[in-house]
Amino acid sequence: MSDFPDPSGYKAPISATTCSKLAQSGLTPECPFVLNKQKGAYLYDIDGNKYIDFRMGYGTVPLGHNQPTLTRFIKNGISVGTSPGLPNKFHSRLIRTFHEFAGFERIAFYSGITPALAAIIRLLNPAAVGVTSSYLLDMGRGLPFINPEIAEKGKPYDLLLYEPVDFDGGMDNFRPDGYNAKCKIAVENRTAFRMNKGFIASLDDADMILCADIPANGMQCAAVLSGGKFAPESEWIPLYLAVAMNETLKYYLRHEIWNYKWYKVPERLVIAQRGGIFRLHSRYPLSELIPRGVFLESEMGYSSTAHSVYDIRRLSRALGEITPR
Q1: 74: part of which helix (H) or strand (E)?
Q2: Which of 27, 38, 62, 248 has its CA 20 to 30 A from that of 195?
Q3: Residue 88 sits in which domain range?
């Protein structure tokens, strides 16, 4: 593999041909390159280019890709069984581990955020759904049977989805006070285990806490914690996924990831940075970042424990060479 590309040495002939064929087959959205592997803070494509990943699964991979300890446990779990449908010995262990982070009466596990939200929608059958961030609006629009809108205070909703950090603003803590909803759900896909021990949201403020992917360091999964007022129906997730979630949560506890000293992005570039999550002043074109060895799709960026100070410097240098949108 070559080291990071630069605009004069960046190569993409195989990716370009493959992406074109995939697009003709109906794959959307269009992909910038074809991935070969993920490791640590980096992505490698089939053309031999290397990129620093600052998307990190939209913030759900705080430990870096293919973290060696977790990978070993996941491989061991896969060797035991991959099919869902029955309870396994790790479910009770997983519940106990979650209790290290948050107090709850009920918990439901899922193989991803879509089945988790589908279970919530089946339970509530909401006619009016409000969300409090552009991320949640895009996520909700991808679901059938609901028509989400940016929530307004005082307007009644059957379901309110909110993130406990104001990502569209100054990244301060967000509270759902003043919003009129039968059920309030804190979505902690991007915030859990990074800034506080466990969750920023509390079940005193929300009826449920939904976290997806991040309990297994980016591997597709979801958990819904509730205080008992609402109890969505759970899936029996496969054994390897229960292992992945349990070992990741234990790793967070052992290493106190919320106290990790994340490398800072230069202040001139960001509106705010909290716990390895940063928001740039502007959005930069992905097409110009890619040849410079940086993968960052929006103004929101995410660090992992696998990033180095040199990765931050490369990001700063790349942004300095590009005109933002």
Answers
A1: helix 68-80
A2: 38
A3: 68-255
